[in-house]
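Lay summary. Proteins are chains of building blocks that fold into shapes, and those shapes determine what they do. In this project we predict the shape from the chain. Here is one chain we studied, written as its sequence of building blocks.
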Amino acid sequence: MPGRPNTNLAAVVLTRDVAEWLADLCMDAVPAPTVERASASILDTLGVTLAGLDEPAAQIAASLAASDGAAQVASRLGTSFATSMESAAFVNGVAGHALDYDDVSYAVIGHPSVAVLPAALAVGQATGASGSSVLAAYIAGVEVMAKLARAMGEQHYLAGWHTTATVGCIASAATAARLLGLDVSRIQVALAIAASSAAGLRGNFGTMTKPYHAGHAGRSGVNAARLAAAGFTADPRVFEGPTGFFAAYGADPARTGLVGSGLGKPFELESPGLGIKRYPCCYGTHRALDGMLSLIEQHGLGEPDVAHATVSAPPGELAPLIHPRPTSGLEGKFSMPYVLAAALIDGTVGLATFSDEMVSREVIQTLLPRIDVHAFEPGEPEAAAGLAGGDGRVRVAVQTRAGNHVEAEVRYARGAPENPVAIHEVIDKFRDCAMGRLGREQVNRTVECVLGLQTADSLSPLIDALTPNIRGT
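And here is the predicted shape, written in a compact code that computers can read:
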């Protein structure tokens, strides 16, 4: 209305602020620690993508992409199959998230790299971009995703949205737009188109549709950037408009105006950083798993020794764990009782833990009722801890059949930003994930290419290293 005071000047040009930052970012302005952490996360994401190639969700997605007969300009990583930019981002995103082994972000309450990196690689390969350009686009996409997610706040996740998909679509568009060389006005359009693709429900956790969310984010973002480059139109104020993204998805009004001014100050990759997963399951189980595995090691515990076990955790940490009695391997990834039962029975939790056969074992089904999970009571400080797993602590207590009581408390999971893994551990994880798909020489070359990405003339050496010396897909 005429004469109405503007109470949120910072948000009036927010979409343009983001677009200008994306257009202006150069690698000279990116601190060395951010680049180092970006390289580690890229390598980690490539590894879990290779490990996920044979998962049913990844196979189905690839089969459909192959049947489309698209232009062969971007690779399905770990194979000799090439397809369109959009389809490559989709199939690599699905494979990268199929095992739920990819990195996590407190700000996102989800998975940034698997939404952003497939788009960066697909567009970078198709356009012949330099390694430095791809690296900058990946860093920019993660940064935009994290800062937008902070504005959305926990209420977005609690309402049932999966931020990896909703905000991931926009971050993927930001990444692709940079690599396509769009100007500020066209970047705004790309972000706006992507915002209309923002979707993904937590109700689908424990099914193939969860990794679909990551693939959807990559594909939608690439498509949005390409449409914008071709002259498509969209609202250039899509974030801050009265019927725009923030309003529709319930953003925190106190935070939205800080997005543009907060980009790169600091970079999310550096502070607080991303969490590198040590177990291929929901991050909400990792602190409890660390606690249970420490008790197993310290006290020699096994399934026959346990009369009863209890996990106490912040309420938010338990929100994604929607399958207390799983019936499939996918559901098992979102089941606190199952992952702890598997640890007690097998002494470890790894890729083999999450098959349907492992979940259906009689010894597992017998042990599950003896493991209780509950949130800290309202009066306890941890009850107010956030969703992302970076606050408070998790307590694991075991009552043995011999009458002993042992417990462990874990504040930071191994691999969390506050308890990080070293680069050699990331390389070890990559090798473990990749050796089933690539030969030793290719594994070594991939590591070298990723760590040297900033000086590479193109992605060709990396893509070649990731392509097995076999025929077929």
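What the prediction tells us: The domain at 283-410 is CATH 3.30.1330.120 (60s Ribosomal Protein L30; Chain: A;).
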